[in-house]
Amino acid sequence: MLQVLDLFGVFVFAISGAAVAARKQLDLFGALVLATVTALGGGTLRDVLLDRHPLGWFGDATPLLAVLAAVLLSVLWCRWRPLPRHALAVADAIGLGVFCVVGTRIALEAGQSGVIAVILGVMSGACGGLIRDVLCAEVPMVLRQDVYATAAAAGCTLLLAMDRLAVAPGIGLLAGGGLIVVLRLGAIFCDWHLPRFVLRGEDD
């Protein structure tokens, strides 16, 4: 299940990277770069920190093929139809949910403590998008007032709690990932957000 979910997360996150490339009017190479760093960046960082060798996409080309398929599908879609308004945000929400719980589960199976597992889960889901946003000269979504890292941490914590209660791993993955997706979609469509940190000027 972890492998299937991880591959699904790669595909969805690659679509979100390609959507950003389309919005920025980048060429095909630019779309491939953004899709690759978005889909593989967080998981690669997690595996490096866990000292997992070989890295997932080094020993198996399937994730790279999933990225390529996602980019080609996105390019074909954009040629025939306009990009849906919330396509990037929805794809990113689904990818975040999948990668966070997969990352947390992998860290737990590697023998890490609960706190470290949650941190690595959040990193797995958020760091790829962070790299994508930095490359596009945007303030990373994870640092804005949107419910993003908060949603990721909530879902990873729920998975951890269910693991400690000896709930079946599959149920924990679905519950944690589902919570993340619901919170992110709520932020997108219902304007849920955290308070902004604002410095008042002398003239206020």
TrEMBL record:
<feature type="transmembrane region" description="Helical">
    <location>
        <begin position="61"/>
        <end position="80"/>
    </location>
</feature>
<feature type="transmembrane region" description="Helical">
    <location>
        <begin position="6"/>
        <end position="22"/>
    </location>
</feature>
<feature type="domain" description="Glycine transporter">
    <location>
        <begin position="90"/>
        <end position="163"/>
    </location>
</feature>
<protein>
    <submittedName>
        <fullName>Putative membrane protein YeiH</fullName>
    </submittedName>
</protein>
<keyword id="KW-1133">Transmembrane helix</keyword>
<feature type="domain" description="Glycine transporter">
    <location>
        <begin position="4"/>
        <end position="76"/>
    </location>
</feature>
<feature type="transmembrane region" description="Helical">
    <location>
        <begin position="29"/>
        <end position="49"/>
    </location>
</feature>
<feature type="transmembrane region" description="Helical">
    <location>
        <begin position="87"/>
        <end position="108"/>
    </location>
</feature>
<dbReference type="InterPro" id="IPR005115">
    <property type="entry name" value="Gly_transporter"/>
</dbReference>
<feature type="transmembrane region" description="Helical">
    <location>
        <begin position="171"/>
        <end position="190"/>
    </location>
</feature>
<feature type="transmembrane region" description="Helical">
    <location>
        <begin position="114"/>
        <end position="135"/>
    </location>
</feature>
<keyword id="KW-0472">Membrane</keyword>
<dbReference type="GO" id="GO:0005886">
    <property type="term" value="C:plasma membrane"/>
</dbReference>
<comment type="similarity">
    <text>Belongs to the UPF0126 family.</text>
</comment>
<dbReference type="Pfam" id="PF03458">
    <property type="entry name" value="Gly_transporter"/>
</dbReference>
<keyword id="KW-1003">Cell membrane</keyword>
<keyword id="KW-0812">Transmembrane</keyword>
